[in-house]
């Protein structure tokens, strides 16, 4: 059902329907201005601002003040994690991620991929080795800046990878973020060959991340297992961490291919 807004255009009816329409409009492009939301939904601009403020207070949106745009908030990530966990992650895969955390003393993650899109569906961490926080704006919208995202980009067909690299300037999250398309292209080729992606303080200053790919029988990227930790935690352990992560990804892939048991 819809109602006519003050411009005579269809707009979602009801407070919940309008809030969902605002969230969907932001999700469509990763972030949006209030005017962009109004144009996309037919909701009057003052109402967009009011709904956006309510969603910000509830952590479903964040306001990017410098860019004058709204983006999805951390609460939605938590909902997505809950959804994917309820849909089912093989128990053996969860145990592998927990073992990775225990063995390396680093926050450990499982992400499911669809092209450049990915969602972290399982995390094993502790007060001594906390997860990246918040997993909010930029985590999905800037795949070139994260180990998860680089693994996804490297697995794309060449034409799709090139389309991403050609789609406007790459956002810098830190002074180490790789934003030169040619340098990133060479790095993605190496990741595609090795099946492992590094990110050195490119998303969060002081933190390095490493992701290994989980592949289907036909070679399609299913997901990644990854770790994050302060830079100093990798000193003298790089080879060991890479080997441990590769082994974890291999066993996780085997569990998915065998249709492992769910808890």
What Rg, in angstroms, do the CA atoms define?
20 Å
Helical percent range? 40-55%
How many helix segments?
A: 9
- Summing up helix and strand content along with how strands pair, one would put the structural category as alpha+beta
Major sheet description = 5 strands, antiparallel
User: Which spans have pLDDT < 50 for at least 5 consecutive residues?
Assistant: 1-9
Measured between the Cα atoms of the first and last residue, the distance is 40 Å
Number of strands: 10
Average predicted local confidence, pLDDT: 85
Q: Give, in order, the helices and strands.
A: EEHEHHEEHHEEHHHEEEH
**β-sheet strand percentage:** 15-25%
Shape: globular
Give, in spatial order, the strands making up the sheet with the most strands. Answer: 7-6-10-9-8
Q: What do you see in this structure?
A:
- The protein is α+β, with helices and mostly antiparallel strands.
- The protein is built from 9 helices and 10 strands.
- A 5-stranded antiparallel sheet has the order 7-6-10-9-8.
- It is globular.
Quick summary:
The chain is an alpha+beta fold and 263 residues long. The chain has helices at residues 15-29, 34-41, 45-57, 74-87, 91-104, 147-154, 158-166, 181-194, 238-257, and strands at residues 2-4, 10-12, 31-32, 61-64, 69-72, 107-114, 117-124, 196-200, 207-215, 221-230. Strand 4 and strand 5 (69-72) form a beta hairpin.
